[in-house]
Amino acid sequence: MDIGCTVRSRNLQCGNRTQRGLHLTSKLRNMEILFGLHPVEEALRSGTRKFDHICIARERQDQRLEKLIQSCRDAGVRLRLDTRDQLTKLARSEAHQGVVAIVRARQFLDLNDLLQGAKRNRLLLALDGVEDPQNLGALLRTAEGAGVDGVVVTERRSAPLSPVAVKASAGAAEHVKIARVVNLVRTLEELKQRDLWCIGLDERGTMDYDEFDFSVGCVLVLGREGAGLHELTRRTCDHLLRIPMAGRVASLNVSAAGAVVLYEAARQRRKALQAGDSAPAPARAKKQKGLGS
Asked: Any idea what the CATH number is for the domain that residue 64 is in?
């Protein structure tokens, strides 16, 4: 045996593996990871993501996975079999359920995209510094289920739409319109100019959440975990609502509180729709709250 040839062969194989690794690393810079059955299924169903490929764990074999594999084939998405350990390294989590997708990075909308069309009385959700990806995912799941027309997040001091957030949303993030803005207060002022009421949820609010008429066009503003709304955001809101608490705890987690209020809004809107309520929304007061008010 030619030892020199064997060494050169091994060096060549090692070099090829290194090149493949560098190629994958370069590709991932412009891509995102999705993991878990629900997020990958919903990304396929929404048709809004461009897939590079989907990795499937060799060890997992069941009917639900077979259904996902068939959906991938129908959509023309490439499949690759890997070990569960390899998927864990790729997802940086053990919660991948044997499915990891490499997708094109999501493009966020701007505010005008959320307001396109002739629809009246929109319901928007604005997040003022929600930093926990689990809370972000839970809120996106609630927003999608409650029929919210769009979600506004800030570029800074907010949780990114990470694989963890998408997983927490159970894939609902793929169906929700999300706009990212630089300055939330200015965005709220613009929404007020477009005849949407800005409604903040705050334990210091003077009105119970179920006393407000959510059948009108409005944006519900939720604040940070623990600290709540920023002071300037709070002053910009037209109304501050509160959730009455019967126990010793002063408030709910932001995702739980958001679910309570959004589903109350959905209930009111569904009731108004069933009643055929086509009365015009009440006119806004001439004097509006704004910056520094």
From this structure: 3.30.1330.30
